[in-house]
Amino acid sequence: MSFVKYLLPALAATKVAFASSDCGDTTLETQVDADGIASCSTISGDVTIKDTYSGTLALNGIKKITGSLKANNATGVSSMTADSLTSIGSNFTLNELTGLTQLSFSQLNSVGNIYWEALPELQSLDFPKGISEAGDVSIINTGLTNLNGINLTQVGDFNIEDNKHLESININELKNSTGVINFSGNDDGLNIEFPNLYNAKGLTFRNVSSVMAPSLTVAKSQLGFWGTGLKNFTAMNLTQTGDLTFNDNPNLNNISMPNLQTVNGGFIIKLNEKLDSIDLPKLQTVGGAIQFTGTFNELEFGSLNRVSGAFNVQSTKGNFSCSSFESEFKQKVEGKWKCDSTNPQASTAAGSTTGSDDNSGSSGKSSSTSSSAAMANGVYPATGIAAVFFALAQLF
């Protein structure tokens, strides 16, 4: 009896120790494999789901994965759940899981990076705890209609692309982006809200209906809108950007940036046929070229004192005086000068790229440097950036 008396506590202690033990790199081919690591509170390494896995996958018991959770071309996986997992230290990678319909991680709140691509049947996320910490986030070609459950406060690159059913995004807590925020190829009616975002490396938008970023003060490398359904863009607190572009937004009728002071790159407003007025009361410095072409009637540069590139302003029906602009601003422009308030071709693609031919009208050193660095991240659409520099190149 005395032997049993001491043996039972010893066995109990052994069981507790085993349950809390670390496990290493793991490959899962069936649910039996997943059940085999349920006693591991921590996986010290990667969890890899084989491409032959089929059916549902439940990662029960595991609280932490120090490495990556990854599945590539596992087309037979229909569901992934985890009841205790709080963090993934490295990458959460799901690629070509074409049969995945459920993603439920009830306790997950921290991920190194998110890389999801080709998940066409995944329509929603079940992340009730909410992912508040992540590095880069890339979500491409899914069936998601929203990003509920991704509640980031800070992010690196944030790339949301080709999600054809994505209609709304509201990431209330996001305050800072150290990389590029890019939206392209999603639902044309996509509404985006970043109510607390005040600082971003860059933001680029295509195929969106509205963008709200009322707290934004700085977009370091770029802020750009191409081919959107945007009717109005208001950034009351924006003071500084890199390249700044509004290109081919047919419904855009208002741009309000009353506190914008510095554009550290090229500044393009063109082919926005409903935009009647451009008012930039505090704009002082443009580090590249200015190219404003279209049908706008009114144009105000209240505080402009330096343009490092060319100045190319053309309208089909402008009520502004080019002679007044010339006397007030031409000496502040380092590149070539062109101003025409009644050019009938200004609203066309050909007319919007007509300008001078001096190299000093390029987007400038600071602009090309910042844009090249942003492109190196490989996040926002190359066609958009190419369009910026192609348009500027046509000035010369």
Write up what this structure looks like.
- Residues 336-368 are annotated as: Disordered.
- Residues 1-19 form the signal peptide.
- Its main location: other.
- Keywords: Glycoprotein, Signal.
- With 396 residues, the chain is an alpha/beta fold.
- 15% of the residues lie in helices and 38% in strands.
- The chain has helices spanning 2-19, 31-36, 322-329, 349-352, 365-376, 382-393; strands spanning 22-23, 26-28, 42-43, 47-49, 54-59, 64-65, 69-72, 76-82, 87-95, 102-105, 110-119, 131-133, 137-142, 150-155, 158-161, 168-170, 176-184, 191-193, 199-206, 210-212, 218-226, 232-234, 240-247, 254-256, 262-263, 267-270, 277-280, 285-286, 290-294, 298-301, 306-307, 311-315, 337-340.
- It has a 23-stranded parallel beta sheet that branches. Strands 5-8-10 form a 3-stranded parallel beta sheet. A 3-stranded parallel beta sheet has the order 16-18-20, with no helix packed on it.
- It starts with a helix and ends with a helix.
- The model is unreliable at 1-20 and 356-396 (pLDDT under 50).
Q: In short, what is this structure?
A:
Its main location: other. The chain has six helices and 33 strands. The protein is an alpha/beta fold.
Major β-sheet annotation? 23 strands, parallel
Q: Tell me the overall shape.
A: elongated
Strand pairing plus helix content: what structural class?
alpha/beta
In angstroms, what separates the terminal alpha carbons? 97 Å
Q: Strand share of the residues?
A: 35-45%
Helix content: 10-25%
Which runs of at least 5 residues are low in confidence (pLDDT < 50)? 1-20, 356-396
Oligomer state equals single chain
Number of helices: 6
Average of pLDDT: 87
User: How many extended strands?
Assistant: 33
- Rg, alpha carbons: 26 Å
